[in-house]
Amino acid sequence: MFLTEGAQGLGLFAFAPLIILFPFLGLLINLTIGRKLGEKVVSFIAISAIILAFVIAVLQLLALLGQPIPLGATVPIAEWITVGDFSVSWSMQIDTLSVAMMLMVTSVSALIHIYASGYMHEDVRHQGDTSRFTRFFVYFNLFVAMMMILVTADNYLMMFVGWEGVGLCSYLLIGFWFEKGKDGIGNAIAGKKAFIVNRIGDFGILIAMFLIFWVVGSLRFEDVFNWAHAFGEENVLIISVITMFMLLGVAGKSAQLPLFVWLPDAMAGPTPVSALIHAATMVTAGVYLIVRSSPLYSVTEVTSNIVAIVGTATAFFAATIAVGQSDIKRVLAYSTISQLGFMVAAAGLGAYVAAMFHLITHAFFKALLFLSAGSVIQGIEQGHHDAEHEGAEIEEPFDPQDMRNMGGLRSRMKLTFWVYLIGALALSGFPPLAGFFSKDEILADARIENTGLFLVLLAAAFLTTFYMGRQVLMVFFGKPKTEPAAHAKENPPSMTIPLLILGLLSVIAGALNAPGLHTLTDWLDDTLEHVHVTEFSISVAGLAVIFSTVAVVLAWMIYGRKPMKKGEPDPLRKILGPIYTGMENNWWVDELYQFLFVGPYVKLSQFLADVVDWRFWHDWFHDTVLAKTYRSLSYWLAWTFDLRFIDGIANGLADVTKGAATRLSVLQTGYVRNYALAILAGGLLILSYFIFR
Amino acid sequence: MNIPTDYVLALSGILFALGVLGVLIRRDAIVIFMCIELMLNSANVAFIAFARSFGPSGAGLQGHVFVFFVIAVAAAEVAVGLALIVTIFKTKRSIDVDEVSSLRG
Fold first, then answer.
1. A668 contacts in B (CB within 8 Å)?
2. For residue A432, cis peptide bond before it (omega within 30 degrees of 0)
């Protein structure tokens, strides 16, 4: 339909809806007949759907490049809501920003899909339910479709559909092994936590949308931003309120302070999920939202400052926690929160391009790190299995994600080690890897805008390198601390090839916005306003590299020189003391929330359930008031009303009739002459009536 | 020899009153029957008187026809009534109507 009708004047842009359609088709096929197809076909369908989506994304890129000025196009799909003057449509905004997101999401998704086809093959066997292989890819394709709706929307409402859709997929995939985890409900609780914390953020987004509708009367980006240009100066207050509520949504989705608590627990999902949803794509939606709404944010200095502070605080706070974690995936989770903090901080400082640049490079190297971590976990699980076969003694329960159980994997999983090292170096910001350029752009911007934030971000960058160094040293260096680690095995090509490609991307993605070229800056300049070229600063970059080097050396001194032995406490604990305990325990934020919100809420619910509902409504109102009233009413109806009144009428009638009959029977004398006299009297009466009337 | 209708009607009324009195006063069932016959015949007299008064041009022979009806019905009634009286006599050995009061309420 859209290919014929909308094709005029749109050219290659007319293919844009296919980018949503292909993943949907993939999931529909797998959903309906996937169970009969077998794992190979199912994963083939899912992967092809994403690769086709990637092809469409490339087509959109070509279409943009074909334009003299890449202003993009709006591709209408369908009308959605039309009420009076207000209308919302399903239509896609193809511009440099959304195409950048489309390319990033589809390419990373395609690689992770390929990886997942290998990883989930093992995972479903390890977890003991092979039937969930299909389900996994259905959710995964659904996620990509929803993500595409999110990034291509041309209005806030359509974007919110994608926003909620990816949240749903996140929930479904965190709880993918919902019957596993602590006490058999750990994973389900993690999924629920993610969902509920995101609801708090969505509340903010909804309020922001209501306010936008209230003041602007439209939810289309174009209308809203034109309004902000025309009337932004007079409406700073309301725009500040809107952007603050939006920030709440961003904090939920992009795991910023104070709503970051769900992301570490989200690691309960299978590793490809952590890589795709909780590192590379979905969690960056918040950053995308700020960048997309930059015309609003650039109007209000208050919110922008708050955004910058929230981002910076998150970057540092999460980095400190990452230092104290021992679960390989939780380190990466806190690292993700920290890096998202960098992006949000950049967006708050007005460095939207730097935020997008870091978003894209981070997607590559964090996906790489998560997938490599998955490779490590699976290698260890294989090792676990093999070691058991050989009769080695393994203490149970064995946690294949605990870095204290690893060590020495460098020689056993060579490829994984090298790509992991690349990812870690890219994340730490060593030149010339991707993270160096993107992080330094943020740091350079921060130095210009706000020295205080710059120093905190620099500290966060230092911690980043330190915890990555710690992780690499604990996992890959030293001697294996357990039998499974000693038996670990490299994984099949379906898992390692995506790692290699992502490794390559992590190396070269810095060229996207390399100093002097500013490709991404020029590219996004056509969609975003207030884009400024951030000149590469040797002093900042040099400082960051020096800090990182010091961090690596420090990590080597603590963890590399004398590797930890099995059961030995973390050497950092001796150095930092109680601070390390705080890092290890997430600074007790979960406990704080438990105390401040969850506990009182549970108490309130218990009060409502036990006292208000059960004792008041059930025991008192239903059982006492209603039941007793009803019982006495029925009693009254039965004994008083029915027996006395209704029966009284019937019996009374009978008594009256009987009495009357008794009295009248006296007239029946049996004497014929009496009757004759009565007849005579009657006859006379009738006659006299006729005579005297 | 033209007797005025009023005289005949007066005779009819006297006969009827006698009949009524007889029914009310006498206890002998057969006498009561005879009094009933008296009442019926007083009615016949009235019929004939009116028929004669209005003449053939008035009601035609309707009055005469009614008289024949009454005579026929009276005959039938007597037949039934006498049969009843005989039956009562068989059980009560009496035809005193005051004796026959077992249908008293």
1. 103-105
2. yes
Report the alpha-carbon distance of residue B45 to residue B8 in Å, rounded.
7
The count of other CB atoms within 10 Å of the CB of residue A285 is 24
Amino acid letter, residue A94: I
Please tell me the distance in Å from B68's CA to the nearest CA on chain A.
24
The verdict on a CB contact (< 8 Å) between A680 and B98 is no
Q: Which three-class secondary structure state does DSSP give residue A91?
A: strand
Whole-number Å distance between alpha carbons of A444 and A515:
12
- With an 8 Å Cβ cutoff, is B27 touching chain A? yes
- Nearest by CB: A680 against B20, B97, B101: B20
Q: Which of A141, A140, A162, A137 is nearest to A151 (CA)?
A: A162
**With contact defined as beta carbons under 8 Å apart, do A466 and A323 qualify?**
yes
- The answer, for B88 touching chain A at a CB cutoff of 8 Å, is no
Which amino acid appears at position A396 of this protein?
A: E
Collect all residues from A whose CB is shorter than 8 A from any CB in B. 664-673, 676-677, 680
* Exposure string over A193-214, b if 16+ CB within 10 A, otherwise e: bbbebbebbbebbebbbebbbe
Closest Cβ–Cβ partner in A664, A669, A673 for B24: A673
β-strands A73-83, A86-94: how paired?
A: antiparallel
> Would an 8 Å CB–CB cutoff place B100 in contact with chain A?
yes
**Contact yes or no for B101 and A673 at CB 8 A:** no
Are A670 and B103 in contact (CB < 8 Å)? Answer: yes
Architecture of domain B5-99 in CATH? Orthogonal Bundle (1.10)
User: A669 and B23 in contact by Cβ < 8 A?
Assistant: no
CA distances from A411 to A373, A408, A479, A555, A560 (A): 16, 7, 10, 20, 16
pTM of the model: 0.78
Q: B23 to chain A: which residues are within 8 Å by CB?
A: 673, 676
Count how many residues are written for chain A: 693
pLDDT digits over A382-435, tens only?
Answer: 888 888 888 777 777 788 888 888 888 888 888 999 999 999 999 998 888 888
CB A190 within 8 A of CB A590: no
- At residue A401, φ and ψ (nearest 5 deg) are -100, -5
Tell me, what's the ipTM? Answer: 0.83
- Which residues from chain B sit within 8 angstroms of residue A671, using beta carbons? 97-98, 101, 104
Rg (CA), chain B: 17
- Using CA atoms, how far apart are residues A477 and A498, in angstroms rounded to an integer? 24
What span, in angstroms and rounded, lies between the C-alpha atoms of A445 and A431? 18
Q: Closest-CA residue in chain A for B27? A: A673
Q: How far is A631 from chain B (nearest CA, A)?
A: 50
Which value, to the nearest 10 degrees, does the dihedral of the CA atoms of residues A526, A531, A532, A533 take?
-50
Q: Express each pLDDT in A171-230 by its tens digit.
A: 999 999 988 888 888 899 999 999 999 999 999 999 999 999 999 989 999 999 999 988
SS3 category, A80? strand
pLDDT band at A490 (very low <50, low <70, confident <90, very high): confident
Cα–Cα distance between A45 and A96 in angstroms, integer? Answer: 29
- State whether residue B17 sits within 8 Å of chain A by CB: no
The number of C-alpha atoms within 13 Å of B47 and in the hemisphere containing its C-beta is 18
User: What is the DSSP code (8-state) at residue B54?
Assistant: H
- Residue whose token pair is 């910058």: A308
